[in-house]
Design brief:
This protein is mostly beta strands. The chain has 1 helix and 4 strands. The protein has a domain of 35 residues. A two-stranded antiparallel ribbon has the order 1-2. The chain has a two-stranded antiparallel ribbon with strand order 3-4. The longest helix has 4 residues.
């Protein structure tokens, strides 16, 4: 799913959990798996999810 970074930060990340196993929110560009759709950097996606579909 392609999203602006500010919207992605409200989605849960399956890789990030607290010490008591609660899921944390997406970190966007602070995450090594975050990928931009193009050079405009308006929308991105989680690289862990595979390729971005338009």
């Amino acid at each position: 799913m392609q999203l602006p970074e500010n919207e992605a930060k409200f989605k849960f990340c399956p890789m990030l959990k607290t010490h008591d196993d609660k899921m944390k929110m997406c970190m966007g560009t602070q995450c090594m798996m975050w990928r931009w759709v193009d050079e405009t950097k308006e929308k991105g996606f989680c690289g862990m999810a595979g390729e971005a579909k338009a």
